[in-house]
């Protein structure tokens, strides 16, 4: 608990057997009330290791639903458990759970209802192993989005995110894609709903066991990002309308 607010960490897992234990053991449990693991039909021992670690809430998808579909399951369960502060941590150990107290503090004190762990703030992205082509694409897409979305973030593509329960209950995230573009759609919805977003510097870790999408999927993601940004602009200017921007949540 943080000042009476229930803190839940959600772990979207796919073939995370090599790293989930290391990730789990860095979670600050005096602060975190619940952990939810959703395994997206992994082909390794992710679920078995999660069970051995004592994770109380483990959900297994019988078929792979995709990164966005995994998050939908996790956020729905977190809200079912009455989470007030929900933090997504990738169990591939690309993002350290040691930043959880800072993210919880920012939301718990009412400073920002959303906090992103940015790999771009500071100068650690490339030195942490981020491929050069991904860094360049990140900078280009972020500039493109900041202009069209009419906001200012250091990056829109981090997977380290924390939300207040109010934010998750307010946006239509279940209507989003089940693929990687889910993350971008979600930020677009949050900005459209006029929730403010805070950022903190997050160390970058790229290594063999960490998950990463290949070049082909990266290109598909980049095109999707631009499409989301254009739709955001058209909706904001009332030129067109899309149902994902309704503030009535999908349940």
Explain what this protein looks like in three dimensions.
There is one protein chain. The protein contains 9 helices and 7 strands; from the N terminus they run βαβαβαβαβααβααβα. The chain is an alpha/beta fold and 251 residues long. It has one domain (7-242): Spore Coat Polysaccharide Biosynthesis Protein SpsA, Chain A (Alpha-Beta Complex), CATH 3.90.550.10. It has a 7-stranded mixed beta sheet with strand order 3-2-1-4-6-5-7, sandwiched between helices. Helix 1 links the parallel strand 1 (7-13) and strand 2 (34-39). The radius of gyration is 17 Å and the shape is globular. The two termini are 26 Å apart. 39% of the residues are buried. The model has no long low-confidence stretch (mean pLDDT 93).
């Amino acid at each position: 608990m943080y000042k009476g607010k229930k803190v839940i960490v959600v772990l979207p897992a796919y073939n995370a057997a090599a790293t989930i234990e290391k990730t789990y053991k860095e979670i600050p449990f005096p602060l975190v009330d619940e952990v939810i693991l959703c395994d997206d039909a992994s082909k390794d021992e992710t679920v078995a290791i999660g069970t051995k670690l004592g994770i109380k809430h483990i959900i297994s998808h019988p078929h792979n639903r995709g990164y966005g579909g995994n998050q939908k399951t996790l956020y729905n369960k977190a809200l079912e458990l009455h989470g007030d502060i929900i933090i997504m941590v990738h169990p591939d150990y690309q993002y350290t759970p040691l930043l959880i107290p800072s993210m919880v503090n920012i939301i718990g004190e009412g400073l920002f209802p959303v906090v992103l762990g940015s790999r771009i703030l500071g100068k650690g992205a490339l030195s942490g192993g981020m491929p050069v082509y991904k860094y360049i694409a990140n900078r280009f897409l972020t500039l493109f989005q900041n202009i069209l979305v009419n906001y200012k973030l250091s990056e829109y593509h981090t997977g380290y995110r924390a939300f207040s329960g109010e934010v998750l209950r307010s946006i239509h995230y279940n209507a989003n894609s089940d693929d990687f573009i889910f993350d971008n759609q979600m930020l677009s919805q949050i900005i459209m709903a006029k929730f403010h977003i805070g950022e903190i510097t997050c160390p970058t870790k790229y290594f063999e066991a960490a998950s990463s999408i290949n070049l082909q999927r990266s290109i598909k993601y980049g095109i999707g990002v631009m499409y989301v940004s254009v739709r955001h602009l058209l909706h904001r200017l009332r030129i067109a309308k899309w149902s994902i921007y309704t503030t009535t949540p999908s349940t």
